[in-house]
Design a protein that fits this description.
The complex is a heterodimer of chains A (157) and B (224). By secondary structure, chain A is an alpha+beta fold. Helix content of chain A is 57%, strand content 17%. In chain B, helix 1 runs antiparallel to helix 2. Classes of the chains: A alpha+beta (157), B mainly alpha (224).
Chain lengths: 157, 224
Amino acid sequence: MYSELFSLARTQDEVDLLRQELKLLSDSLFQRQGAFEEVLTKKIRAKTANVVRKIFASAEINNKEKFFEEIIGSFGQLKQLELIVAFEPREETVERIWEWVAKNMGAGIVLNIRVDPGIGAGTILDYQGVYRNYSLKKLLESVFESQSQTFIKILAQ
Amino acid sequence: MDTQVLFYGTIILTALMGIVLGYVAISYRKLIEKYEKIRVGQEEEARGLEIQKTQIIDEGRRQAGLIITDAQNKAAKLVSEASTFGAQTKEILESELKKTQTVELDYYRKALEETKLGAVATLGGISKDVKDEVVRQIEAVRSSLAIEMQKVQLETRQMLASSYKKMEEDLEIHKKERLKKIDEKIFEILKVVALRSVGKSLSFEDHEDVVIKALEDAKRENVL
């Protein structure tokens, strides 16, 4: 039921933004009448507002405050998959990676993507303390290291 | 560094040569002073001997004169005493007197010659000794200087050869290091060029594909 909501929290930046939006909604529950609707309309992203409306429309949620509390609390349990890539990821890139992660690793994982053009291509990942370098830079280093004598011979010709 | 060692080594050797030359100059000066002193002494001695020789000759003359005078007086006395003797006796006496005079004169001449020869021999001996001493000392100094010069030349040559060898070794090491660095630099440039060219030639889709491929590899390796 909440998978659509979590699809708005694919990356750590999105999680932080969504947390703020849900906090605004939660706080508005204790404010004057009409404040919740005003936040939905004016202070959060339309797609967030749409998902929240959809959830409230389709499910029996008696305690909205508790709902927001649980959702915000669950963000703290998300596992981070840190990825360093060589290019500034576009929306489609994030979506592709996130879909792959959701499909192959399951829910509850958030991406933390950083950019370093120096790696050339590929990625360096860090997941739950395990580090792997799948960058083009690493690949070239290993090739140059193993084939250095061959290169020297070629250059000497 | 080696150039500095060579430079300072050359300066030290030059300084040593300067010290040796200074020592030689001082020794030579002392030798000349010694020679001058001996020469002055010799001249004074020669003058003394000349005076002595003159005195001996004068004394000889004086004694010869006395002997002759004495002989003449004795002869006159004998002649006067012998006036009573015959002509034959007178002739014998005159003959004896002449013999005596001749013997005395020969003796006097001989003594004079011996004195002369002795003085000349003494003076010649002194002169020759001084000359020999001076020549010997000059020869010793020259020989010592030549040995020192040879030693310095040998040390300089050895030092230069050693420095040159060390320089060659250092140069070889430096050359190898530089070549190694150049190789590393070439590889670094090749890596950068390869990274940039490959990175730029890839489209967004290609980049994404490579990332997805990496994630699949990681899953296969049980990292994810």
